[in-house]
């Protein structure tokens, strides 16, 4: 069966640290356009759309020829927004959640997350990791670490240093990249699952899936991305892109 894949870019206007983030300019284009055009380089997506709760973002996407849907402003998480889009678009088998604040995202990273779901029908969810060598980042709680089993499925995600380096020479660290692939039926069920103690403790939503016994395949990628959360992040991305 030929599976259809929808790439969804959730984009909110109200960001605590950087209000109006998706519409902030990098060169002559809003950030959401940079993200959209980067996502278009993925080869496995059949369709791309921006899911937003804000009319200004919706109109900005349409103005550069992109597709967008207005979603409820009341969603507690981006995953709930994603599920609303999945509910509304039943023709797609797989949904890829792409962060709206990562204008440097690579198309091949998106494809690498979709591929395991195409290959393994028993897999509910997929995400990515990149090798982490910076000591400050290893200890930084905002940088989420992941450990996997020998098959590449997640054992745990944490803001703490995992694994603990009892044997420093053997310790290898992986940074979790917050892109997710979901099988559509799993996504619609996932948002109904009760939150788990680990999820609430770490404030990491993906721990809900692990806590309820679902497998998450974690694909190794070479290219790290830069999320824009602060004015400093924005300036860093502008410089990288030559602005």
Mean pLDDT: 94
Low-pLDDT residue spans = none
Total domain modules: 1
Give the C-alpha Rg: 18 Å
Beta-strand percent range: 15-25%
Instruction: Walk across the major sheet and give the strand order.
Output: 5-4-1-6-10-7-11
Oligomer: single chain
Q: Would you state the CATH class?
A: Alpha Beta
CATH superfamily grouping? Spore Coat Polysaccharide Biosynthesis Protein SpsA, Chain A
Helix and strand sequence: EEEHEHEHEHEHEEEHHHEH
Q: State the major sheet.
A: 7 strands, mixed
Secondary-structure content class: alpha/beta
Counted by DSSP, the helix tally is 9
Q: What general outline do the C-alpha atoms trace?
A: globular
CATH T-level fold name = Spore Coat Polysaccharide Biosynthesis Protein SpsA, Chain A
Structure description:
- The chain is of the alpha/beta class and 243 residues long.
- The protein has one domain: Spore Coat Polysaccharide Biosynthesis Protein SpsA, Chain A.
- It has helices spanning 31-39, 55-63, 78-88, 107-119, 135-139, 184-190, 197-202, 206-211, 231-240, and strands at residues 5-11, 25-26, 29-30, 47-52, 68-70, 94-97, 125-132, 145-148, 154-158, 173-183, 216-220.
- It has a 7-stranded mixed β-sheet with strand order 5-4-1-6-10-7-11, with helices on both faces. Strands 2-3 form a two-stranded antiparallel ribbon. A two-stranded antiparallel ribbon has the order 8-9.
- The mean pLDDT is 94.
